[in-house]
Design a protein that fits this description.
This protein is an all-alpha fold. Helix content is about 80%, strand content about 0%. Helix 1 runs parallel beside helix 7, helix 3 runs parallel beside helix 5 and helix 11 packs across helix 12. About 5% of the residues have low confidence.
């Protein structure tokens, strides 16, 4: 009993460590960069379009690197990985203070976002997957990723104040150092894989564990999953999800303020509503995955996403629907914050979890990197109504594919684990 209690405390200590990493190092490298745009564009004389490419370049480079990062995680101590990842992410952010040419910003953004993948989109799921069984994995992952939302509340205000008072070079340097000051000690003191006697998380109940033992090491190898057609269909599904998520996340302020002429204060309140419900979405979504499983959990996310998109379509007639959009979009964040990792673990197992998750994230990133551009083209050559309608189609297609593939692979998994397939 005492051994189990100690193991449980260590599990949740790792979750707290992941929360701290998400709150500060990840928050610094990923969440506050948009605050710097106007200052850098004005100070360095860049065009908005050319400087904004740092987001596309960072996303694509980190996505391309993700399968390799996952492969390395299977062979290298996670403490070292988080140490290196924190240095790349926040050390890179610190280096922005010395950049004065576009190519320098592009290169540093690529380096920094590779570090972000190491400590966040790949690193957190791998750690949680190693420490927790399926009955608690979603909840633990949701709590870990909620650290990013909590940290963002404070970092956004601090960044705005620092930029107004001290300028962008000093702010890049100070926030980069802040991320290093938090990330390095957390990596050294908290982050690790469980020992052999800590590896399996407590089952839902002792009795259930005895009656239904689960082989947590079941899983596909990377070579096996590459030959599985359902895997490639899931990858395509996440491309569609990435397209709509990018458009809904990036384009709604311009739509509400520029096209619909809503008051800037109202647009700000919509953003605050989204941030608040995102926190609930991460924590509640993880618990939802644990309780309902991947198929029904993603069904809930798909319904919320569709309501969010339809809300934007009817906002010209009913402006208050913008807040329905924000609430539903925020509550559905678990589909892309937790969904790739949860589905990878549930459908393909633990054996080469990191490398497989990296490929899934690559598909999502391709969609995310192209979604906002596609939306802009649809608006330029058509209308906002056309653009939101296409995004709604992406939601429907993407989630139908995810649900279909998940059902098929869960059946395949049961057959594989029982030795029938």
């Amino acid at each position: 009993m005492e051994k189990t209690a100690n193991s449980s405390r260590r599990q949740w200590l790792v979750v707290i460590g992941c929360m701290l990493i998400q709150a500060v190092p990840f928050g610094v490298a990923s969440n506050i960069q948009p605050q710097f745009i106007s200052y850098v564009v004005e100070g360095e004389g860049f065009s908005l379009a050319s400087f904004s490419l740092i987001f596309t370049i960072g996303t694509l480079v980190s996505a391309i690197a993700s399968p390799g990062i996952g492969y390395i995680y299977n062979r290298v101590n996670p403490k070292l990985m988080y140490l290196v990842g924190s240095i790349l992410a926040c050390g890179g952010f610190w280096l922005f203070s010395f950049a004065h040419s576009l190519w320098q910003f592009y290169l540093i953004a690529a380096i920094s976002q590779v570090g972000v993948a190491v400590i966040s989109s790949i690193g957190v799921p791998i750690l949680i997957n190693a420490w927790f069984g399926e009955d608690m994995r979603g909840k633990a992952m949701g709590i870990a990723f909620a650290g990013g939302s909590i940290g963002n509340i404070f970092l956004q205000t601090l960044a705005a104040t620092a930029l107004a008072r001290e300028g962008y070079s000093w702010s890049y340097m100070m926030f980069g150092l802040l991320g290093l000051v938090v990330g390095i000690p957390v990596a050294l003191a908290i982050i690790r894989y469980p020992r052999e006697d800590e590896r399996t998380a407590p089952a839902r109940t002792e009795e259930k564990s005895k009656k239904q033992p689960v082989n947590e090491e079941w899983g596909y190898t990377l070579s096996e999953v590459r030959q599985e057609r359902y895997f490639w269909l899931l990858l395509v599904a996440f491309v569609f999800l990435g397209i709509y998520i990018s458009a809904l996340a990036v384009q709604y302020p311009a739509y509400l303020k520029g096209h619909l002429q809503l008051d800037p204060t109202t647009v700000g309140l919509v953003g605050s509503t989204f941030a608040l419900f995102s926190l609930f979405g991460n924590v509640g979504g993880g618990a939802l995955f644990d309780k309902l499983g991947p198929v029904r959990g993603m069904t809930v996310a798909g319904v919320l996403a569709a309501i969010a998109c339809v809300s934007l379509l009817v906002t010209p007639m009913l402006p208050w629907m913008a807040f329905v959009f924000a609430a539903c979009k925020g509550l559905s964040v678990f589909s892309y914050m937790l969904g790739p990792a949860f589905l990878t673990g549930s459908l393909f197992g633990r054996k080469e979890f990191g490398a497989i998750l990296g490929l899934i994230n690559l598909g999502f990133a391709v969609g995310f990197a192209s979604g906002s551009t596609l939306f802009g083209l649809l608006v330029d050559f058509g209308s906002y109504t056309l653009a939101w309608s296409v995004m709604l189609a992406c939601i429907i297609i993407g989630y139908i594919m995810v649900l279909w593939v998940s059902k098929a692979l869960l059946e395949r998994r049961e057959a594989r684990k029982s030795g029938r397939g």
